């Protein structure tokens, strides 16, 4: 019985020895958003900043990851739009200053292309999301790049949604918006 316990303990310690912790390099990471009109090709876009993130790599898999996004950093070239995105009509950033993604299932690093399945919380509402991404090494860092299409109405953002308000015509805003990212995770100090 003691031999089985010892072998089990050795396997756990060996597995932990391969795990490497990473932290988001905020200065080297970028995120952008794009939204569009519901019934025309008119598109608006801007930037948003990741706040913090961690990642655990165990051999050829990402086993844990979390990312915090600074919702107060939403930017647009149009000042009035930027203020509106900060308001209760959209992201209500004073009340909900961050959005958070937490990985729920491991991501394989083989092949470079992957699907990150996890929980995303925006405006206090948490939903499961599948986010396609590519993962590649860059020196000692891991770079995650991708583009997610998200349904804003799933997070309680109904402003000018054609699915919730009739007769909007030119004022209608598509329910989906795009979030693109390039996230650079570097080995944590001492790793």
Mean of residue pLDDT?
Answer: 87
State the end-to-end CA separation. 34 Å
The general outline is elongated
**Global Rg:** 20 Å
Low-confidence stretches: 5-16
* Strand residue percentage: over 45%
Kindly state the number of beta strands.
10
CATH class: Mainly Beta
Structural category: mainly beta
Helical content stands at 10-25%
**Number of helical regions:** 2
- Give the second-level CATH assignment, the architecture: Beta Barrel
Return the CATH topology.
Lipocalin
CATH superfamily: Lipid/polyisoprenoid-binding, YceI-like
The description of the largest β-sheet is: 10 strands, antiparallel
Give a structural overview.
The model is unreliable at 5-16 (pLDDT under 50). It is built from two helices and ten strands. The longest helix is centred in the N-terminal third of the chain and has 17 residues, at 2-18. It has helices at residues 2-18, 79-86, and strands at residues 19-24, 30-36, 43-58, 61-76, 98-103, 107-108, 113-122, 125-138, 141-151, 176-187. It is mainly beta and 191 residues long. Strands 1, 2, 3, 4, 5, 6, 7, 8, 9 and 10 form a ten-stranded antiparallel sheet that branches. Helix content is 13%, strand content 52%.
Q: What's a concise summary of this model?
A:
It contains two helices and ten strands; from the N terminus they run H-E-E-E-E-H-E-E-E-E-E-E. The chain has helices at residues 2-18, 79-86, and strands at residues 19-24, 30-36, 43-58, 61-76, 98-103, 107-108, 113-122, 125-138, 141-151, 176-187.
